Amino acid sequence: MAIESKLPHVGTTIFTVMSKLAEECGAINLSQGFPDFPIDGSLIDLVDKAMRAGHNQYAPMPGLPALREAIAAKVQRLYDFHYDPDTEVTVTAGGTQAIFTAIGAVVHPGDEVLIVDPAYDCYSPTVELFGGTPVHVRLGTDLRFDAEAVKAAITPRTRMLMINTPHNPAGTILRDPDMRRIVDMLRGTDIILLSDEVYEHLVYDGEPHASVIRHPELRERAFVIFSFGKVFHATGWKMGYVLAPKALMAEFRKVHQFNVFSANTPVQHALATYLQDPVNYANVPSFYQAKRDRFVHGMKGSRFKMLPCEGSYFQTADYGAISDEEDLAFAQRVTREFGVASIPLSPFYKLPPAGQRLLRFCFAKQDATLDAAIERLCGI
To answer: Which of 131, 270, 347, 371 is the most core-located residue (most Cβ within 10 A)?
Structure first.
């Protein structure tokens, strides 16, 4: 039977490739972005309690009312803006599903979607699946947002701009001046903004998270995506949520109901209770900053050059002083010969910059894991 692929140029994700290689080689896995330490035991207890109380059937399509109310209260506390939990908050099966659904809700065949490279690898294929045209614009050479390049890429066919802060894989953040530039470039257009903010609590060195929620002209046209898995070290739960004004959310829910319909019920009950205490997420920045600092300090003894990591739990490193190999080949060799797996940056680009020699390391690991990886990397 002949099958015409809708994504003929797409293969297995680089995350799967490198994690599989790490397993085969017995390497320390700093590639895929997941912690290797346990989650809060009290959160496990809350899920267990919900299951034993019989909360094991479908949740309401947009999410449990108690969880949506807890999300709205958290957003009000952090960003001084109130989203209506009934019409403007939806619980999703992770951030990726939220992104998929948002794009599916508003992107039509022929629409252009601006994607800032390097970009999380689900962005472009999702746009293509719904008939849109991805238009790729690179971050600057310093891996920071290039507002002029993005503005120059806008055309009458532009339907959506996708932004990501803190940025995966670059580890840089957007700041309020960047947001004001985005306000200026979108003013007077019908362009929808998708803001991927799944690492909202992983911002370091005292910097605030510059959410689009803080900017009225942006939030009125934006889907804003968040992840419980990233904040509470439970990536396997695949739990997230999206915020959007009522009209956009109505379109989102039309697709959501035929995609996953609803997310994990007992976990929603647990999160509704867990979110009520801000301490459960207030200490996340300092927790991960200590891990970033441990990794960066240890890598001073290596020949890698650490680039600034302002947010996320990923550290980008330049290996140009070590090898001229292409990044995928070098990452695979380091995994096989030195026993540490990382992610090359080239798969995050439509067209990788010539001569760029960068790897991404995940530092969301136990101290012992990081120390062992540092020792091996310093031996290269």
So the answer is: 270
pLDDT at 1 over 90: no
**DSSP code, position 325:** S
Query: Closest Cα partner for 222 from 198, 190, 181?
Result: 190
Q: What is the pLDDT of residue 76?
A: 98
Sign of the C-alpha dihedral computed for residues 369, 374, 379 and 380 taken in this order? positive
User: Dihedral of CA 113/119/120/125: which sign?
Assistant: positive
Quote the pLDDT of residue 112.
Answer: 98
Task: Compute the average pLDDT of residues 72-87.
Answer: 98
pLDDT over 90 at 273, yes or no:
yes
CA dist., res. 311 & res. 356, Å (int): 21
CA distance 322 to 15: 23
CA distances from 260 to 7, 117, 125, 185, 223 (A): 21, 28, 19, 34, 18
pLDDT(192) > 90: yes
| pLDDT score recorded for residue 119 | 97
Average pLDDT over residues 103-124: 97
H-state helical runs in 242-303: 246-259, 265-274, 279-282, 284-298
Return the closest-CA partner of residue 243 out of 263, 217, 222. Answer: 222
Q: Between the CA of residue 276 and those of 66, 77, 88, 281, what are the distances in Å?
A: 10, 11, 19, 10
Q: Which domains does the chain have, with CATH numbers?
A: 14-32+283-377 (3.90.1150.10), 57-279 (3.40.640.10)
